[in-house]
Amino acid sequence: MNKQSIQIALAYMSVVIGGGFASGQEVLQFFTGYGLVGVAGTLVSGLLFAFLGMQIARMSSKMQANSHKEVLYSLFGARVGLAVDVVLSFFLYGVGVVMLAGCGSIFAQQYGMHPLFGGVLMTVLVIATLCLNVKRIIDLISAVMPFLLAMVLIITTYSIFNYNASVETLDAVARENNETVSSNWFVGALLYASFNIAVGFPMLAVIGGMTKQSKAAGLGGVLGGLGLGVLILLLNVGLFANINQLQGIEMPTLALASRISPLLSVVMSVALICMVYSTAVGMFFAFSARFAKPESVRFKGFSAISVCIGLALSLGGFSKLVGTVYPLLGYVGFALILAIVFSWARGRSRANLEVQKRELSPLS
């Protein structure tokens, strides 16, 4: 294992683990709401993350791709690839809207303020960052990721060992009182992997393209995917162990933190705000860059208008938006998964044919 593989693995995890994951709302709707069987769902998603991450990183490395568009065009062809790229851009915008709503929920749950306050604050911060190009601020916020992961792990571990109901009771509460993205746990697991692959695809393609060794890139994708699977599993078990105390709560991890310590909940809320900010900037930047050149006057104006429209859309509520936007993005991600699997199968078929030709050829 080399340094490049580890870097790709960490970058892959950082792209996927955004404000939605850290809040616990994603895991609640995609896994915990199905009850105990949701654990099997986390394993399915983890394996998919590993396989898809390996394929995307390795393909990008072989192509030495400079943009995710090159990989999309290779998978779908120029015309269909362009259509997928445009559709993907609009759904990334939807994720940005969800982040604005998430900030509103943090201020409402932790500080008792109206959700609009948090939404407006995040809107101003995102517009200022996109217009002023404050790259140092983004780098500083990105440094919160390891700290946030440590917080989630501490809170989850504590919660797992401090449950106050039987497994049967928790399973019944989880299945009866929580909304899920699908009626079937397996479909929910597929949707979670596919929507996150859709979100992480652009960045993973670029990172993979920067690596000259395709095997190292593929290994990084596998390690990152398995790491994601472990984190999802731990958070799901932590939420499940306390599901009877999390009914109707927008930010489950924040609620768990408040039960451990009021100070910890304040620290967790700040970390969540930083994570939401980082994700929101990334999503709105990707959307605006699709239609205007970054740092241009048109880009700044387009960014300001699109984020303000996003604020209006975010008033639909965080949990409701997560349950609407993410599954729809997951269905778009299915197209990516099918194309990747087809490309992999075609590559395997060609490799087998080459082996058969060598075996059939006369010995020289």
Characteristic key phrases:
16 helices, 0% strand, 364 residues, mainly alpha, Amino acid/polyamine transporter I
* Low-pLDDT ranges: none
What is the typical, i.e. mean, pLDDT? 84
- Sheet-strand content, in percent, reads under 5%
- Helix content, binned percent: over 70%
What is the CATH superfamily label? Amino acid/polyamine transporter I
CATH architecture: Up-down Bundle
SSE order, one letter for each helix or strand: HHHHHHHHHHHHHHHH
The dominant shape is globular
Q: What is the level 1 CATH name?
A: Mainly Alpha
Number of individual domains: 1
Gap from first CA to last CA: 38 Å
> What is the CATH topology classification name?
Amino acid/polyamine transporter I
Number of beta-strand segments: 0
**Biggest β-sheet, characterized?**
none
What is Rg?
A: 21 Å
Instruction: Please count the helical segments.
Output: 16
Structural class: mainly alpha
